[in-house]
Prior knowledge:
Layout: H1 3-17, H2 19-31, E1 34-35, H3 36-43, H4 47-59, E2 63-67, E3 74-78, H5 80-84, H6 89-100, H7 102-114, E4 117-118, H8 119-131, H9 138-150, E5 154-156, E6 159-160, E7 170-171, H10 185-192, E8 205-208, H11 210-229, H12 232-248, E9 259-260, H13 261-269, H14 275-279, H15 281-289, E10 296-298, E11 306-309, H16 311-330, H17 333-345, H18 350-356, H19 361-373, E12 378-384, E13 393-399, H20 402-430, H21 432-450, H22 455-462, H23 467-503
Antiparallel strand pairs: 1-3, 2-3, 4-8, 5-8, 6-7, 9-11, 10-11, 12-13
Helix pairs in contact: 1-2, 1-20, 2-4, 6-7, 7-8, 8-9, 11-12, 12-13, 16-17, 16-20, 16-23, 17-19, 18-19, 20-23, 21-22
Amino acid sequence: MSSQVRKVLSLILLERFGMVVEKVATHLFQYGSSPLLHIRKYTELPLSKVKESLAILIKYNLVSFKPNRNENIANYTFKPENVLLMLRYPKYMNLIKKKFGDECEMIIEEILQRGYWTASEVILKVQERISKSNNISLVQVRDQFVSLVNSKYLVRLPFSQSEDKPVPELGIDGKELHSVPTIDMAALKRAKSAEHSEFADKNIYWTVNFNRFHQDMRDKIIVTAFTKKFDDNVGELVNFLLNQMYIRTEPWADVSNPIPILEIKELAKKQKNLSQLNAFFDQYVTLIEEDHSNLIRKSGEASGGSFQIFLRQAFTQFAWELVEQCVFEKFDTKAARIFRLVKLKEYIEPDHIQQQAMIPAKEAKRLTYQLLEENYLEIQELRKAATGGGPTKSFMLFHIKLDQVVRMTLELCYKTLFNTMTRRNHEKDINKRIIDKKQRVDTIAMGMRVQGASEEQLSDIEDMITPPEREILEKIEKTMKKFNAAELEIDDTIFLLQMYLNYH
């Protein structure tokens, strides 16, 4: 990974874990897999601090370990991609909240905060949190936990297969990944009553399955694309196709296996809020079939036929559209027109660009070479063999290497993300005094409210912040919201580009 990614990783680790952990992680990023003493030597940190940092990084699955050649010493390897996923934690929780409700959102939040946890402990903690505002039983929370496991949003952590080795080798049988252990409800009730109780699943830990969340995020991009192009009913139809795809196809396959359209029709009939889709189902199917993008194609004629979803082609098309939009915003409409022309022709001579782009020759030449300079276009030289002792002729052809452009755009996204995070941190630093004051006042007010203070007393405490300070705080809050929104939007772009690279 590049230096831009390293800068982003450093900021994320500093915010969440502090300087010591960040220093250890940066060393592993730069030097690759390293043993403990090597890390201590080059970071110049005390051995205890290095051990503590590695324990934290392993807990959050940011570092993995395996025995070296003599099997007595562990080599530690950094996982930079998992650090970047921390920026998506709010998206993961929001997705679960919309799909399963507040209880499941809290379960995911608790496990994300700790890296991993046992089922009994997380159920007890979530029920305690919810009971303050809503009356919900331990059984209901347990059922929500089981639903997350069955939907594969939670997965069991691998465990040590043998106790006699100096460096444990972690592993787990595939059948056990989503196998819910027996949860002793009587033990949970005793623990809730502050009685000492030992849980039967105390050594079985669960963590978040990010891969499952990314499937949902990928499907959402496809559904949103069809919804924007047609309407909500087409989006629902595509959503049904994607859900049925998982029954007969590996989740990350390039192309789905055929999905019978009659199955989709039966599923749509069961949904009472899709009256328009049911009334014009055949017309909507025809609309998808005749769509020129060919992302969903018919694969059979019998019994209404079947459809296949071409996921690799879908994200190739999305990547093209995103890159074209980047060219348009970075340059202008004429440059975007030249870029689309080269994409359409695949290989094209400079003179033909000037003729077919309907742009004055001088301006077309300037924009073409500007795109070339910014690495959006490539040049391939073709030489024609000389005949009769004449001079050798050569032709210059412009073309686009989409993989290279996508990687370049991804680097720009990381650079933009780093700049956004740096600017946000700068705003916090210059306003640190007033932000700290607001936090102290809020803490005092909360404590007084718990003690039963009157409204007049609470008002006096809030008046400790002057009107000019309130205006500054409102401005800071708006600025922080803008930066946070920008980070999430940049991450959306990064995710789409990563999906393209995953399929290629």
